[in-house]
Automatic annotation (TrEMBL):
It comes from the Bacteria. It is found in: Cell membrane. One of its GO terms (biological process) is transmembrane transport. It comes from Siansivirga zeaxanthinifaciens CC-SAMT-1. This is Peptide transporter. The chain crosses the membrane at residues 20-43, 165-191, 198-220, 226-245, 276-298, 333-356. It holds the Pfam family BPD_transp_1. The lineage of its organism: Bacteria, Pseudomonadati, Bacteroidota, Flavobacteriia, Flavobacteriales.
Length: 364
């Protein structure tokens, strides 16, 4: 029996490997996952939430470069290397975009950057604020590959850090939906009768409420925030899992291996968890992939409405909300770049879901 199970797994894996778009989507999702976890290691702006603002250079086009003067702060950060890597650096230094500068005997004179042909303000700074009285290491050319947003923040860094919310909400929401959905569906399908009727009533009531409206209600009840959105999305997605699990258990609970397990005296918990669930997980895996994509879209919609991840957190949906009006102002990339990121990730999950469906289909 074990040999047969292993051979079926090998067969499904071979079928999956032959699906180009499935394999491509898998590696793309892995890449996004790595970027999400180590976002601050890849982001040019590694401050917390990539929130370093420079209003003088707001809404600049991709590839924009400017000289950046960093004025060091004497306040020492108490963050560890682990916190810097995974939660961003608490940046106490002051960054100023400048157009030109000159160094005299005891001071640095610089002209602040000003766009649209305007003249920037000229200011002076004592050299004593710099290490070894040398300001040169603190002036560097900075390039914004994706340009800057309306607050002058690095758009590339915001996109990379924003991937974390969109990616991890899929994991948390699907995890919550699997726990509740498998539990409710298993009980309803296995025991039937009044238990099934009550659970199906709960499922139908939950199903009848528009998903976005239900998420908004749960979010308002739990409060606005990062984890509240994750929980709210997860609590709305379990009904699909429960219906699939219930239908699968109803179709297999009278099969010979289940009858044999009952005859051997196994309790109901063991029969469900050890014998039935492992044999019906294929459609649950497929629907989980679709739920990943749905969770990303719901979170983006909530952030667009302003009740998702709250500022200064970076979120792809919130980035579209902040810049959608720039589409008609000649700078559509500010909204299109995060929109393309959402589309790519959702498409990857849908393609891998289709590939898993084909690979796990025993009829093919």
């Amino acid at each position: 029996m074990s040999h047969k199970s292993n051979s079926l797994k090998q067969l499904a894996l071979q079928k999956f490997k032959k699906n180009f778009w499935g394999v491509f989507s898998f590696y793309f999702i892995v890449l996004v996952g790595v970027v999400s976890v180590f976002a601050y290691a890849f982001a040019p702006d590694n401050s917390q939430y990539a929130n370093q603002m420079h209003l003088a250079i707001h809404s600049k086009k991709p590839g924009f470069s400017v000289k950046m003067l960093t004025i060091p702060s004497h306040i020492k950060s108490k963050q560890s290397g682990f916190e810097n890597l995974f939660f961003g650096k608490q940046n106490t230094d002051t960054e100023i975009p400048i157009s030109e500068y000159r160094i005299t005997a005891n001071q640095l004179t610089y002209k602040e950057y000003a766009s649209d042909g305007l003249e920037g303000t000229e200011k002076s700074l004592s050299l004593e604020v710099f290490q070894n009285n040398n300001p040169e290491p603190f002036i560097a050319e900075k390039t914004f590959l994706f340009g800057t947003d309306k607050y002058g923040r690095d758009l590339l860094s915001r996109v990379l850090v924003g991937a974390r919310i969109s990616f991890f909400i899929g994991f948390v929401a699907v995890f919550i939906s699997l726990i509740i959905g498998i539990f409710m569906g298993s009980i309803a399908g296995y025991f039937g009768g009044k238990i099934d009727a009550v659970i199906m009533w709960i499922i139908n009531v939950t199903w009848s409420i528009p998903t976005l409206l239900l998420v908004i209600a749960i979010t308002l009840a739990l409060g606005k925030g990062f984890w509240q959105v994750f929980i709210a999305v997860g609590l709305t997605m379990w009904v699909e899992v429960a219906r699939v699990v219930r239908g699968q258990i109803i179709s297999v609970k009278e099969m010979q291996y289940v009858t044999a397990a009952r005859a051997l005296g196994f309790n109901n918990f063991r029969i469900i968890t050890k014998h039935i669930l492992p044999n019906i997980m294929a459609p649950v895996i497929v629907i989980s992939a679709a739920n990943f994509a749905a969770a990303i879209l719901i979170e983006s919609g909530l952030s667009f409405l302003g009740i998702g991840a709250q500022p200064p957190m970076a979120s792809w949906g919130a980035m579209i909300k902040d810049h959608y009006n720039y589409i008609i102002l000649g700078k559509p990339y500010l909204a299109l770049i995060p929109g393309f990121c959402i589309m790519s990730l959702v498409m990857a999950f849908m393609l891998i879901g289709n590939a898993l469906r084909d690979a796990l289909d025993v009829k093919n």
